User: What shape does this take?
Amino acid sequence: MIREALEWLVTPSLPFARRSGHLSEFVAIAARRRRHRAAWASHEARSRAAVLRAAAAADPDGTAVILGAGHLYDVPLEELATRFRRVRLVDLAFSTATRRAARRLGNVTCLRRDVTESLPSLAPVAEPRFLLGEPGTRFVASVNLLSQLAVVATRDLDDATADRIGRALVQAHLDWLRRLPCPAALICDRAIEIAGPDGSVIATLDPLKGAAAPEHDETWIWELAPRGEIDRDHAVRHVVGATDDVRRPQRETDAQSCA
Ligand SMILES: C[S@@+](CC[C@H](N)C(=O)[O-])C[C@H]1O[C@@H](n2cnc3c(N)ncnc32)[C@H](O)[C@@H]1O
Assistant: This one.
């Protein structure tokens, strides 16, 4: 607790993030990860590999932009900094380790920015303009960020309003990624599974609040809260999907191809 309070105090962030709960969540993620480092390792490795696979299709002669990069747990920064001329990390806040790594590599910058362009008021939910019409961006990756947009910002609202605004924030992010002029990779939660005492799934929740995620190229399980984190009997795991480029046309479904 003392460590978390200190981190909350010393971590530079966008000013509203201290009041909105975003910075508390940022610090809490680091604490949860310290408790479950081994359980999270394969999720982080698969996220890093998915970013690199998607980046391999992008022109390296320019800038790679990584959204939600705050702690860099799931971002292959060294490899990206070697491949691209520049790397821009985007988040509401950055850990000391991330800022240190950026300084060391030399061609990496940290940009504190709200990717929704709607916080803290949420009225209206905006169509983000970031990077549109900005030359030089060759690759964008949204890394384990999307479901967070629907949760933290809407925490103080009643359930129906929170779901409606959460869905709008998620949809606006997906629509914005599709409008980018370069490959746009997405790694995000597709489902939240609650497992009971015998390990079987007793409930499934939609972290995207009904917004339709693009087809994934790969999927895996993130053991977010093994038993003992929430209570003795239940575990929470996320089904994560990686899409190399959300701008790619969706494959036709059986129903569409028969139409
Ligand atoms: C679940 S963490 C993802 C882990 C992260 N990729 C890492 O390795 O640190 C979600 C990240 O999204 C960031 N985030 C949440 N809402 C955001 C927003 N509106 N704009 C920018 N970043 C946001 C959080 O600060 C956090 O660092």
Remarks:
- Residues 159-179 form the longest helix (21 residues).
- The beta strands are 63-67, 86-91, 108-112, 137-143, 184-195, 201-205, 218-225, 235-243.
- The mean pLDDT is 93.
- The two ends are 58 Å apart (CA to CA).
